[in-house]
Design a protein that fits this description.
The chain is of the alpha/beta class. Helix content is 44%, strand content 16%. The protein folds into three domains: 47 residues, Transferase, Pyrimidine Nucleoside Phosphorylase, Chain C (Transferase, Pyrimidine Nucleoside Phosphorylase, Chain A, domain 3, Up-down Bundle), CATH 1.20.970; 239 residues, Nucleoside phosphorylase/phosphoribosyltransferase catalytic domain (Pyrimidine Nucleoside Phosphorylase, Chain A, domain 2); 93 residues, Alpha-Beta Complex (Aldehyde Oxidoreductase, domain 3). The protein is built from 16 helices and 13 strands. The structure holds uracil.
């Protein structure tokens, strides 16, 4: 078998055999296939796609390319959740403690920010002292203690995906359904979960710009997961505008705290509840409650302090500081540096999440280069979102940087320009759209 034949087969639209895919994944993992041949095959896959069998084989081989987690020490069915990414997405830090109150235990391996999208690990790191590098050998201890552990993804989990992802990033081959589906699912399968809920985002701030593509990606991942014997469910959510009231690390964790004390925004709460209900049901912890009763019970636990108590336990167990009233202490606090006002009277038609994400990175909340330091206090707060009526001069959004951070004026003004471009104001109210678009299983 040789790589040139594999590239030519895919170039001419033929399905690759399982042996060919195995040869390819083994070759990229042991370094015997050069990057130029890998890149050529990636482009052929982008152009000619993969069928369900090819996608499943690619995923299973990538999952097998490194170490696999054994979560059998968890009490009950190991569950996992994955979001395909977005701006202002602070779902995981709310979801984990909430489902933990129902006895659902989780080992959550998360990533850092990527491009203009935020990362859960960076968000937790905004809490003073919070350790996001928990050794795998200690996961069981944490899980026994609080029912939860959150840690940065280790490099030995699906290493073939790591190699492919960094090549895709520089060869224009990221946005392909078979490649995204196999990349995500290989890490989820290697992570050891038996039941997986996917939050598949769609809109300007997501990989999938349309609902139709989001559905195709969700269906592909469900098929791969089911083929591998996992319970699967996907929730399609709106990422055409940022989720919640703010984006940026400390700002989002402050919003997490509000949501965990029952004062969250409707969109964040709706997505959390939808995912929580599915995870609790899949973990067999619904305790006979109907879906509506479970939904209500989740809301109760957000407002009566139970979910918040679990959140405090999680923070303390991983070395994070909380104050006397149980609120986290942050490494850097936001300083409100500039307000962007509405140039017109009318309705907010859209707030483009991609442009807001880029503004947030410019302010320092994300990285322009891999090694850039993060300003945890940087980000944006939204005072008007889609459908809101505004008058000329009303504040649409505030731009923040850390109290102790230096931000040059040019970056601040560039961020302001992006925000003004992101907000579209029109004369008539737009059609209303819920955060949860559909649920597939
Ligand atoms: N997230 C991943 O892990 N992989 C992709 O390909 C896209 C998003």
């Amino acid at each position: 078998m040789n790589m040139l034949e594999i590239i030519l087969d895919k170039r001419y639209g033929r399905s690759l055999t399982d042996e060919q895919i195995r040869f390819f994944v083994k070759g990229i993992t042991d370094g015997s296939i050069p990057d130029y041949q890998t890149s050529a095959l990636l482009m052929a896959i982008v152009l000619n796609g993969m069928d369900e069998r090819e996608m499943t084989t690619l995923t299973l081989e990538m999952a097998d390319s490194g170490k696999k987690n054994d979560l059998s020490y968890l009490d009950g069915i190991p569950v996992d959740k994955h979001s395909t990414g977005g701006v202002g997405d602070k779902i995981t830090p709310v979801l984990m403690p909430l489902i933990s109150t129902f006895g659902v235990q989780t080992v959550k391996l998360s990533g850092r920010g990527l491009g203009f999208t935020g990362g859960t690990i960076d968000k937790f790191e905004s809490i003073e002292g919070f350790n996001v590098e928990v050794p795998q050998s200690e996961f069981a201890e944490y899980a026994k203690d609080t029912g939860m552990v959150i840690s940065a993804q280790t490099p030995d989990l699906a290493p073939a995906d790591k190699i492919l992802y960094s090549l895709r990033d520089v060869t224009g081959t990221v946005d392909s359904i078979p490649l995204i589906a196999s990349s995500i699912m290989s890490k989820k399968l290697a992570g050891g979960a038996q039941a997986i809920v996917l939050d598949v985002t769609c809109g300007s701030g997501a990989f999938m710009k349309t609902e139709q593509d989001a559905r195709r990606l969700a269906e592909a991942m469900i098929k791969i997961g089911k083929g591998a014997g996992r319970q699967m469910c996907a929730v399609i959510t709106d990422m055409d505008q940022p989720l919640g009231r703010c984006c940026g690390n400390t700002l989002e964790m402050q919003e997490v705290y509000e949501t965990l004390t029952g004062k969250g925004s409707k969109d964040v709460t709706d997505v959390v509840i939808e995912l929580a209900v599915k995870l609790i049901q899949m973990a067999d912890k619904a305790d006979g409650m109907s879906e509506d009763e479970l939904r209500q019970e989740c809301l109760n636990r957000l407002s009566d302090g139970r979910a918040h108590l679990k959140y405090s336990e999680l923070i303390v167990s991983q070395g994070g500081r909380i104050d006397a009233i149980g609120s986290p202490v942050y490494r850097e606090y936001p300083f409100d540096a500039m307000h962007v006002t509405s140039p017109d009277e009318g309705y907010v038609m859209s707030v483009r999440a991609d442009l807001i994400g880029k503004a947030s990175v410019l302010l320092g909340a994300g990285r322009l280069a891999k090694t850039d330091p993060i300003d945890y206090g940087a980000g944006l707060c939204f005072y008007a979102k889609r459908g809101d009526k505004v008058r000329r001069g009303d504040v649409l959004c505030s731009l923040c940087h850390g109290e102790n951070a230096q931000l040059d004026e040019e970056r601040l003004f560039d961020a302001m320009d992006l925000v003004l471009e992101a907000y579209e104001i029109g004369p008539e109210p737009p059609e209303s759209r819920e955060a949860v678009i559909d649920v597939l299983s």
